[in-house]
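Input structure tokens:
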């Protein structure tokens, strides 16, 4: 009977975990381990691009790739993990319950937008967290073109001035003009809790964000938070009300709630603490990758961010090491010392930095060209060619 290596999730972490595990089995000519990937769809959803228009096209099918490398795909949504019995409970697309046993598990179920109990948030706000919610926003924006001009119609409020909020806001003027017309008086406002514009992005990148915001007409309301959302806009904590028919929530992300199924230490974002081989502390047969893993990238106190940049590499290591654990061969310790930031700033361009201190390297058109290449080429999965796909899953290949 074959040993079972189960991967939960078909995002960047899950996909590359499965490919990397398949690579190691191929290297050792082992056919006594079966790799199964459980996810709602056999597709990689290109989440870093969900702030863009035409979001319905931002996924890559994985069926042919899984067939090429010998990964069994099970279509379903994981609901429970019994670490003691080594079983995962799930529901298929028809809602029927199922169960999968495993010898080694790679949890790569990703993260989701944090939704605090802000009055009206659920009913009236939009987000760009998933394809479905981003498509809902896109349909709403297109529908605005059928309404008469008004302050509320022409105003977009983005709650949150982090990476997602900035990319969403800076791309919004061009999207609105394409729908409402070039002659409209538009307002795009970022509401952020920090005391300074883009404070969380660091001093190396802030001047470019400020310049782009000024050039694009993006307004920042800092040292402020959204207290309530209604059909006519947002009310801030200080009582101010901003008229808007389009409020987009981008504040904070949390690891998949599946992490709570494991009796293991988690950080403030719900991520599981892992060792250097990405094995969950205290659970010998469970590994974590992507946004559910709190993993040290180096020996200087830096930890992987919730980003595809880190998820791809974490997946390569986690899958490799889970398979190595089954085969009884040496694991490969996770290290990812190089960190880069490439932030899209709409029609102004982009900004590219290197290092955790975000040293400025490229701006405007040069950075935009790099961002476009990242978004449309680098982060997409390999073709359904067994040799090339397995070669691409080597954990020692640098991501950035």
């Amino acid at each position: 009977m074959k040993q079972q290596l189960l991967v939960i999730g078909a995002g960047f972490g899950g996909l590359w975990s499965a490919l990397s595990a398949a690579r190691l089995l191929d290297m050792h000519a082992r056919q006594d381990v079966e790799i199964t990937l459980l996810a709602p769809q056999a597709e990689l959803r290109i989440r870093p691009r969900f702030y863009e228009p035409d979001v319905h096209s931002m996924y890559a099918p994985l069926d042919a790739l899984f067939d090429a490398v010998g990964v069994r795909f099970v279509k379903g949504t994981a609901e429970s993990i019994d670490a003691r019995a080594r079983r995962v409970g799930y529901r298929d697309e028809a809602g029927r319950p199922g169960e999968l046993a495993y010898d080694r598990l790679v949890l790569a179920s990703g993260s989701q937008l944090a939704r605090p109990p802000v009055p009206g948030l659920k009913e009236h706000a939009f987000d760009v967290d998933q394809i479905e919610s981003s498509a809902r926003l896109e349909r709403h924006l297109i529908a605005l073109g059928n309404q008469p001009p008004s302050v509320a119609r022409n105003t977009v409020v983005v709650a949150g001035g982090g990476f997602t909020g900035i990319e969403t806001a800076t791309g919004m003027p061009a999207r609105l003009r394409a729908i409402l017309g070039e002659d409209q008086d538009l307002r795009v406002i970022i509401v952020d809790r920090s005391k300074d514009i883009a404070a969380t992005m660091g001093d190396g990148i802030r001047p470019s964000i400020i310049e782009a915001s000024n050039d694009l007409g993006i307004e920042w309301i800092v040292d402020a938070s959204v207290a309530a959302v209604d059909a006519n806009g947002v009310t801030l904590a200080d009582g101010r009300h901003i008229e808007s028919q389009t409020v987009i929530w981008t504040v904070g992300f949390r690891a998949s709630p599946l992490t709570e199924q494991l009796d293991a230490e988690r950080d403030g974002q719900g991520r599981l603490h892992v060792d250097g081989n990405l094995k969950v502390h205290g659970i010998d047969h469970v590994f974590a990758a992507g946004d559910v893993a709190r993993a040290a990238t180096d020996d200087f106190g830096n930890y992987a961010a919730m980003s595809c940049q880190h998820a791809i590499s974490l997946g390569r290591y986690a899958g490799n090491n889970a398979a190595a654990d089954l085969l009884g061969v040496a694991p490969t310790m996770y290290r990812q010392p190089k960190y880069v930031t490439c932030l899209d700033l709409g029609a102004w361009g982009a900004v590219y930095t290197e290092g955790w201190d975000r040293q400025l390297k490229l701006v405007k058109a040069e950075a935009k060209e790099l961002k476009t290449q990242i978004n449309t080429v680098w982060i997409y999965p390999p073709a359904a060619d067994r040799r090339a796909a397995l070669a691409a899953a080597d954990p020692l290949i640098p991501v950035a």
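The first strand starts at residue 3 and ends at 8. The chain has a mean pLDDT of 97.
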